[in-house]
Design goal:
This protein is an alpha/beta fold. The protein contains 13 helices and 13 strands. Strands 5-4-3-6-7-9-8 form a seven-stranded mixed sheet, sandwiched between helices. Helix 3 crosses helix 7, helix 3 packs across helix 11 and helix 10 crosses helix 12.
Length: 379
Amino acid sequence: MAARLMRQLTSNGIFKEVSLGEWEHNRRSGVYSILNGTVASWTVRIAVDEMGTAILQLSEYLDKYGFKDIKTYNDSPYSWAHRELGLSFFEVLSKHPHRMEAFSRGLAEWEKNHPVLGIFPFENLLQGNSPHRPLMVDVGGGRGRSLLTVRKAYPELKGEMILQDTTDMLDNISPSELPEVTKMPHDFFTKNPVRNAQVYWIRRVFHDWQDAEGRKIIEAIAPAMATDSRILISDMLIPEPVTAQDSNALWLDLMMMTIGGKERTAKDFDVLCEGTPVEVVKIWQSDKTRSCVVEIMRRDRGIYHSREKDAIPGSVKVFPKETDNPQVMSFVTNDDEGVQPPQRVKINGVWYRREEENENMPRGPVDVPADATPAEKST
């Protein structure tokens, strides 16, 4: 039997027959060899062994359950094809340690094609940065590598780094692996306890979930956000229309379909925010792949909040360019220290006077005063 199967593969350019009944690997067969240990060998195992089985039987699944959006995780094409109805993708893998290992190795290699840096300009966070507020909360962040990457690349950004994940995940991470990172058990479908962070970072999470669950994740974070907080979703972007160059992204979307997830278009990310207090303000696209970072902020980020109950201390309302629409400059101080907001703030190199209750206060740019303190100059 082995020889008959090998002949089929050899005739299709997979393996090379070096003598009668003896074969060796060639470029094509080597991709799949576990002895190879390359990026391709592990990712091909995921695409073929795990997802390919479900994709090949997708038409039969749709005939049985109906041609409609797949919004189930436990009765998905994947669980049906692997004869494990009632179990999710990860529950099926957990029953087979060797398959889980292959998936983990392949995922780790895939991550290299989805970098943390080089897409969103983290230097933009310098405005509003303070050691007195959390800098970055990695929501569902696994082993927290994103936090370490940002801290190393941008040491000038101050503030606490917080990793949120399940207790089981966090217990397997030693303090030496995540120096100066706070580990916090958290279910991202529940209200986020970290308030006023500059960034709530969510990487390679949303593609596992349909819109209803994705919206719950956003709604759980939104109440904790300051006027200048950002939700940054690091994920894949499906372009519209697609081209031949998008085949890898579309193949990944097809694989996610088999387990109940989805990759998203720009419109899909807008849909995630519908009915929530936040909105997409920009999508930062990689110039090499379809990886992107979706930047989300509060819809009311241009409204003065300094006298409201949930405002962060020291919200400042200024009127750039003599308009009636205020731009909010937010910063955090310790209430007990009695620190007051500065009388002047600088935005993009231009100084503005803080608005007071006096409606006659001049609006628009002002000159930097000669007696400006170092703190004011660096604001």
